[in-house]
Amino acid sequence: MKIDIVIKAKIVIGRFLICGVLLSIFGCRMPATTKDQLNTISVSSQACLEELNLAFLEKALKDCNEVITQYPNNPEPLNDRSLIYTLMGDMNSACNDVNQALKLLDTKVSEADPLVRHELIVRKDSCIKRVNMLGID
Question: How many domains does the chain fold into?
Fold first, then answer.
């Protein structure tokens, strides 16, 4: 009984953390960029979530894949894509991106914002908890 309450509390806390991350991302969005502007300027490594529309997650995923191609050693786009995968319900891909981004941070190929490192650690904890709850090997 006590363990069930602890698990439920952890799930609620995890949801609040995800909501906080979503609010911080959407609340601090950069101004919208058109496709023509993207062709004339270099794409930012933080462009994955610009103009994110929850009704068009496939397009957001495609756009984010392009950003990752341009910034293969930057963990930030992988962090963003993990959020898109989470919103799409593809937790395995989301967790794979989290692990890949953390490996990039661990190899010091890229220096990331401390907030990105924190987000990745929170997401990794969520992945571990999901695996434990589902009993996945």
Answer: 1
- Expressed as residue numbers, the domain containing 48 is 2-134
- Please say whether the beta carbons of 94 and 82 come within 8 A: yes
Burial 71-98 (b: 16+ CB within 10 A, else e): beebbbbbbbbbbbbbbeebbebbbbbb
Residue 60 neighbours by CB under 8 Å, 6+ apart: 48, 49, 52, 53, 84
Which tens digit of pLDDT belongs to each residue from 118-137? 999 999 999 999 888 888 75
- Residues in Cβ contact with 72 at an 8 Å cutoff, skipping those fewer than 6 apart: none
CB 106 within 8 A of CB 83: no
Q: Domain of 36: which CATH number?
A: 1.25.40
Asked whether residue 113 carries a pLDDT value surpassing 50, the answer given is yes
> Among residues 113, 28, 107, 119, which one has the least CA distance to residue 81?
119
